[in-house]
């Protein structure tokens, strides 16, 4: 009897000690896991942000895809929920908030445990590192259960680890699937667009596209701008030497839009043009292969590329329509035809000749001729080859306001020389034999070379 009493007392003491031990244990728990997934960060983020993709992975359902899943009407983003049930056990998870392409915060009920789940995504070399942190607080019963099962996190930890492996395998296979198709030469219609322009490394152009498109669509929604098609990248310039590109992330809109100077967004118009259309089905990492296929086709068919025009990548089916990389559709448009002639020289305005009428009384510069004037031996005065002298005793006609310069000749009579005529006009005399008036200044004779259009006047 005493032995039974002692055994009972020992059991009582042990239970009290166990209770005290369990009660004094830290009820907080944290599970951390990380893994490098061989896909780009936007692809991984968009895949994790849609609960309907989790059915392929078995997260928190012991990595078993045979579990029964149910979803809220909206399975993407904040407010989305998912629940599952398998063999009488189940759970529930809800998205509290998201940071685009960066992190996801969730609240979950896992194995009767309340938990906070955080996903953090970081870029690595051609891959993405995902860090998962699950934290919560245990009740007394949960502490005891954890003590009896050798730890709090055995089941959850195992399920999370297997889920990450499934995630990498599934996405890697998805990313590896792609196909290209050269459609042919088409006419790309004109459209107004709203866009934001950036200059960045060529390798980052597509990585930044999803975030830029989301901001543009949000801006258009806030300002009630009608979007008429799929978003696209308009390449303004590609510097192959520096491996940089200047491009405009754009959305097509119904009406032309004007924005204030210095705004992050600007409106524009894409003119219609002929282009070779190539379709890529698959992850954006395969876009270089799409461009290569297009240029190979152009080379084989001898299609001329219009290098002075703009190039397009249209995101026909993006991550907002599908979370599977193999189902993404991107259309590439390479302009074709003869290049535009770009005039770089400064335009010179035509010079209109000005007709200058000399004022009355000024001395006009004579027009030289090859015909030498004939000297009248009677009065030593040159006579015009075209205008005859008036009769003797009359006054010679004098041109109004002009003076005619003549080329002097040596006298043929006598040994004395006659000085050349000055620039001052010689007034005709009223007598029959006028004497030449001596010149006040001596000028050199001008050279001949006229065209006989303006012969000297008498």
As a percent range, the share of strand residues is 25-35%
Number of strands: 17
What is the overall pLDDT average?
Answer: 77
Distance between the termini: 170 Å
Q: How many strands, which pairing sense, and closed or not: the largest β-sheet?
A: 8 strands, antiparallel
Structural class: alpha+beta
Poorly predicted segments: 374-431, 439-458
| C-alpha Rg (nearest Å) | 49 Å
How many H/I helices?
A: 6
Strand order of the largest sheet: 8-13-15-14-10-11-9-12
Order of helices and strands: HEHEEEEEEHHEEHEEEEHEEEE
Helix content: 10-25%
Structural shape: elongated
Keywords:
about 450 residues, alpha+beta, 8-stranded antiparallel sheet, 7-stranded antiparallel sheet, 6 helices, 17 strands
